[in-house]
Fold this sequence. Notes:
- The protein has a domain at 61-75 and 174-366.
- It has helices spanning 5-29, 40-49, 99-102, 139-168, 176-180, 198-210, 216-231, 250-265, 318-329, 354-360, and strands spanning 32-33, 36-37, 64-71, 183-194, 237-248, 270-276, 279-282, 296-305, 336-344, 365-366.
- The protein is 38% helix and 19% strand.
- With 367 residues, the chain is α+β, with helices and mostly antiparallel strands.
- It is built from ten helices and ten strands.
- A hairpin with a 2-residue loop joins β1 (32-33) and β2 (36-37).
Amino acid sequence: MQVTPSVKRLWLMISAATVLIALVVYLGVVPVVKGQPVFLKTVESQWLRDGLLPQGAIAEQAVSGGMSRGGSFGRSAPAPSAPRSLPPSSGYGGGYGGGYGGGYGGGYGYRSAPGPVIVPYPTYTPAPVYVDTGDDGGGGELFFIIVVLGFILLPIVFSSMQSSRRSSGPAATGSQSELLNDIVTVTRLQVALLAGARELQRELDRIAVNADLTTSAGLAAQLRATVLTLLRHPDYWTHVRAESQTVAGREKASELFERLSIQERSKFAVETLVNVGGEVQRRAMPSGLSDEVASHIVVTLLLGTADDRPLFKSVNSVADLNAVLQRLGSISPAYLLVYELLWTPQDPSDSLSADELIANYPDLVML
Length: 367
């Protein structure tokens, strides 16, 4: 049966519509596309402002959220070493007098012309070559082959044995092996404070905007500033959630970190302040989502460190939280791989009610 052009056009239109519908469904269901989070809550907020959704379509929650992130689980490539420059008197431009460590007694003072090097054919009688007829059993050749293979294979075997030892178990704390192996630790610390700590919100804004997220030292400085801000408000602490786990493999650690990050960021309707790698973005907060009385502020710290052991066991009291914060604040830049700071609400006019705290953060432990 011959297919007419009209049927072909109809088939193409149906195929395009199918692909478009599949793409819309994919973007609406899958939370990550090419490693970047898709924030459905932001789309819902836009629909709400445009009048496409009723006020009750979005569950009660804090609207605004702040986020600051830097670092990576990947290994940073070492900087290429600068080529060693020859001294002014050396090189080939001035003949042999200055090159080759001083030349031959000061040099000849002329410039050699480029061209092929002609090696004269030897005029002496070559030495006789003896060919083994195999009467001795060929043991010499076999021994020679074994020696050569041993020199080639032994370094490879030793290297693989050292690599397996590094990856088989945790290294000594503070050792170079701990920094170089693929065992890392992912930590989440979540602190809920009373909403009266509005000064803390302003301080977190300043820390997130002014942080240097392009260097390890800047990332560690931001972590210390965050820890100090929380330590200065112990009277406002109400709840905590803390977990630290070791992961064998940087790719697995990266997947775990991204999963935790998406879990926390999906609780925001819109991220009103974002700083990723030094690029600061601000968004307007949707209005009219909640008229509840402000009750709490939640600050979340996500860390990826080169430690081969968890940073702590459990946090159940104010003393435990104080000790954990001091532990995080003392992490050196060499050990801090990734750091993400999250807090809600970010907008001063926004609020997080007690019911919203229970609904969105059910795993918090009361202090």
